[in-house]
Amino acid sequence: MRQAYDRRAIPPQASESHWQTADGHAVRRIDWPAPDGGAKGSILFLPGRGDFYEKYLETLDCWHGLGWQVTASDWRGQAGSGRLGTDPVTGHIDDFATWIEDLASLWKHWKAETPGPHVLAGHSMGGHLVLRALAEQQVDPDGMILSAPMLGFTASLLPDAVMHQAAKLMKALGDPRRPAWKWSEKPGQPPDARIHLLTHDAERYGDEIFWRQARPELVMGPGSWGWVERGYASMRLLATPGLLEAIGTPILILATDNDKLVGYKAIARAADRLRDVELVHFGLEAHHEILRESDAVRDRALAACEAFLARIAAV
Questions:
Q1: What CA–CA distance (Å, rounded) separates 211 from 9?
Q2: Residue 2 has what DSSP assignment?
Q3: Residues linked to residue 70 through DSSP beta bridges, in sequence order
Q4: Which residues contact 24 (CB under 8 A, 6 or more apart)?
Q5: What is the C-alpha to C-alpha distance for residues 166 and 289, in angstroms, rounded to an integer?
Q6: What are the strands, taking DSSP E only, across 139-232?
Q7: Dihedral of the alpha carbons of 130, 59, 210, 261, in degrees to the nearest 10
Q8: Where along the chain do its domains lie?
Q9: Alpha-carbon dihedral of residues 238, 242, 244, 246, nearest 10 degrees?
Q10: Which of 42, 45, 145, 306 has the smallest number of Cβ neighbours within 10 A?
Q11: Considering the domain 15-314 in this protein, what is its CATH number?
Q12: 264 vs 5, 58, 78, 155, 162, CA distance in Å?
């Protein structure tokens, strides 16, 4: 029988704190210390755009239960780590390189204070950023887990080069910090149909709504035109010939061709370019948030993670 897990409370063995970026920005983190008897290694997890680590407590605690020390962090300007735009809900960044610099700093200090081997994991935009940091040799994990990594947008009806030029134009037509799309009449309030983009599991989707109400500082809505334009620029950078091909780090990718937010074809193309990769493919049974899906999907994803982590620990 599946053991009940309280997804709406911080686990008693975990602790929340802040770390400082190189320029002094305070960013939240949460840590599960090494399990009794010592850790098999350590995992650092980074969530997606508009995300917060509270949504992934169940998965992070599962990895801790497998014997791993676990840490998760916000990105600057998201969740409980401030905002970089002109309002409390629009997600903005000057350049994705800023997040890469932050991750490099966190990685250096986190790796020094945690037992190896070290695994870096990311969902959606978080997956994109950790992969880019690896490609640019800003991090050196022993293994990497990517959940629905943002390597292409499903909304891109034309080639990325054309869409990038359009985003540049829109960014230049006004304040780049202004929202690029509208969610609802109430800023930050998710639209009713949003669940159908993320998960088939209504209860797990409800967990996100709970945390948004319990911790209002987590609420975020659309991305800015600056974020959209810099997102295209960063995805095009990862498409540079030879960049992904040079990566020898073992990588596990979880992705679904039913994703309505990130493009599965772009993920599959990236997987073809990586030297040591396992792509676990889902279909209509999964939406974007695979690690927060219905039990059957999530169990398969976690089983793949467990086998991958066992491989990394054995090495």
A1: 9
A2: P
A3: 32, 43
A4: none
A5: 28
A6: 143-147
A7: 50
A8: 15-314
A9: -150
A10: 306
A11: 3.40.50.1820
A12: 31, 25, 25, 12, 19
> How far from the centroid of its chain's Cα atoms is residue 115's Cα?
23
**213 to 108, 120, 201: CA distances (angstroms):** 34, 29, 19
Q: Could you write out the three-class secondary structure of 115-135? A: CCCEEEEEECHHHHHHHHHHH
Compute the residue count for the chain: 315
| pTM score | 0.97
Buried/exposed 153-163: b ≥16 CB within 10 Å, e otherwise = beebeeebeeb
All residues at 6 or more sequence positions from 192 whose CB lies less than 8 Å from its CB, including other chains? none
Query: pLDDT value at position 186?
Result: 65
pLDDT tens track for 165-181: 999 999 999 999 999 99
Contact between 31 and 14 under an 8 Å Cβ cutoff? The reply is yes
pLDDT tier, 185 (very low <50, low <70, confident <90, very high otherwise): low
**What does the DSSP 8-state code read for residue 146?**
E
Residue type, 277: V
Looking only at the bridges linking them, the beta strands covering 118-123 and 251-256 are: unpaired
Arithmetic mean of pLDDT over the chain: 96
Question: What is the per-residue burial (b if ≥16 Cβ within 10 Å, else e) of 42-58?
Answer: bbbbbbbbbbbbbbbbb
Candidate from 22-31, 47-56, 176-185, 281-290 with smallest mean pLDDT: 176-185
Helical (H) or strand (E) element with 310: helix 295-314
Stated as kind and residue range, the H or E segment containing 293 is none
Beta bridge partners of 32: 70
